């Protein structure tokens, strides 16, 4: 029997859009050290970062709304339509940040514009994750879904790398005064232009077979597709998504968006060194995602999730403690990479696991809303919680917080069902039925 092929056109189309979405999302955090003073009064640098981190967290609290609105849109209008809508919203939000006035010129009104832009980003990303996860999972045949869906985090990380790469270029071509004054606006302009290109690419994507079958099913309850009522029929799966996301999202944002500021603010590394550490470690992290995703197609999803849960629960405190006292690039790079390798057990397959839990008529909403709630409660607040512990003089408390979240998720990984062999289309269901041996 021939091996199923990976539909690279669909994978690349979905991933490129995801790259731009997450470039815009992460560039806010990676450039916050430069624009924090532009929107808030002069004072303690940690206090200014706390303000910008607070607005960053507010964006996460809009993700459940975006997950609900755009998840329902994806289940009723199609995965392609939702992917196009999310990138349009992200382009608008990036443009708003690029032109936002500063505190020196209009007082706190600039911060209000920043807040509105983050709210739009939250709505967009709340729907983007589910639309992308659902599309990549449904567009790929069984036996390749773990590999193909891992490109969601490849593209997410690539977006962050583009942002960090641009930051490194600007750091080496502009003075610090110029970066703090206007240079930080450049990446947001780039994001808005990139989204316009992706809008065109996504309009040429094909709809998935699973969604088309749902559309053609005359007996399917179209009025209930993508509704909260339909989702409540799968309460167990929805709660499972929240619980399995909890530890993963806290660890992910700790070692990605917060890492650069942690190395600058706690380890006291130069901004340029911290950015290079993050870039180098994230590049390797990006490259190993498909390897782990492909492995899950062979051995199942649960072994990778369990490995992440154990590693994050036991490894966070020593890794973060070591990172707090590094004195140069090499030590920071090695420790950061170890942390990222551990969380690969979650990032490489979390999208496909969630999509495989739900039926087609509520799959996008089922992934979007519970995941967005978990991110609002744990992922979006990770940076703020970390800075709060630092401000209170007990920074190590954050390390234990991350470990505790991983421990909760580990319990879920140990007890949940395996999803690798879920049948998503009529052909897969019929093939599965034919493969069941008949008893005499």
Written description of the protein model:
The protein has one domain: MFS general substrate transporter like domains (Growth Hormone, Chain: A, Up-down Bundle), CATH 1.20.1250.20. It is built from 22 helices and no strands. Helix content is 79%, strand content 0%. The chain has helices at residues 8-30, 32-39, 45-61, 63-77, 79-99, 103-106, 109-138, 145-149, 151-173, 176-181, 186-203, 209-216, 228-232, 235-255, 259-265, 271-299, 302-323, 329-347, 350-357, 363-391, 396-415, 426-435. Helix 1 (8-30) packs antiparallel against helix 11. It is mainly alpha-helical and 440 residues long. The protein is globular, with a radius of gyration of 21 Å. It is found in: Cell membrane. Pfam families: MFS_1. Keywords: Cell membrane, Membrane, Symport, Transmembrane, Transmembrane helix, Transport. The chain crosses the membrane at residues 22-40, 52-70, 182-201, 238-255, 275-292, 304-323, 329-353, 365-386, 398-416. Residues 10-420 form the Major facilitator superfamily (MFS) profile domain.
């Amino acid at each position: 029997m021939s091996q199923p092929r990976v539909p690279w056109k669909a994978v690349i189309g979905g991933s490129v859009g995801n790259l731009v979405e997450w470039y815009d999302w992460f560039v806010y955090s990676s450039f916050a050290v430069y624009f924090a003073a532009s929107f808030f009064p002069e004072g303690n640098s940690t206090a200014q970062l706390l303000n910008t981190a607070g607005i960053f967290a507010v964006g996460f609290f809009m993700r459940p709304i975006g997950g609900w609105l755009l998840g329902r849109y994806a289940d009723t209008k199609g995965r392609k339509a939702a992917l196009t809508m999310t990138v349009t919203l992200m382009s608008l939000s990036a443009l708003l940040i690029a032109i936002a006035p500063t505190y020196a010129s209009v007082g706190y009104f600039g911060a209000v514009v920043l807040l509105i832009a983050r709210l739009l980003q939250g709505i967009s990303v709340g729907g983007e994750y589910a639309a992308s996860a659902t599309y990549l999972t449904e567009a790929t045949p069984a036996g390749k879904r773990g590999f193909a869906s891992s490109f969601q985090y490849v593209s997410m990380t690539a977006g962050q790398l583009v942002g960090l790469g641009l930051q490194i270029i600007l750091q080496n071509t502009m003075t610090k005064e110029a970066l703090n004054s206007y240079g930080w606006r450049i990446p947001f302009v780039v994001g808005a232009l990139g989204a316009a290109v992706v809008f065109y690419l996504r309009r040429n994507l094909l709809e998935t077979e699973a969604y088309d079958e749902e559309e053609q099913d005359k007996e399917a309850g179209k009025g209930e597709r993508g509704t909260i009522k339909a989702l409540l029929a799968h309460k167990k799966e929805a709660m499972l998504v929240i619980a399995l996301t909890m530890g993963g999202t806290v660890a992910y944002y700790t070692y990605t968006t917060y890492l650069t500021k942690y190395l600058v603010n706690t380890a006291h590394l130069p901004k340029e060194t911290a950015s290079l550490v993050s870039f180098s470690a994230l590049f390797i992290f990006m490259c190993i995602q498909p390897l782990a995703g492909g492995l899950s197609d062979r051995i199942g999803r649960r072994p990778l999730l369990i490995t992440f849960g154990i590693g994050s629960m036991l490894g966070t405190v020593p890794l973060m403690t070591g990172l707090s006292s590094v004195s140069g690039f090499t030590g920071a790079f090695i420790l950061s990479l170890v942390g990222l390798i551990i969380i690969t057990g979650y990032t490489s397959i979390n999208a496909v696991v969630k999509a495989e839990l739900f039926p087609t008529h509520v799959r996008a909403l089922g992934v979007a809303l519970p995941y967005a709630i978990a991110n609002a409660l744990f992922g979006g607040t990770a940076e703020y919680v970390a800075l709060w512990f630092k401000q209170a003089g007990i920074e190590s408390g954050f390390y234990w917080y991350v470990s505790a979240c991983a421990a909760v998720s580990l319990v879920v990984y140990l007890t949940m069902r395996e999803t690798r062999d879920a049948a998503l289309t009529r052909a897969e269901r019929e093939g599965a039925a034919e493969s069941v041996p008949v008893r005499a």
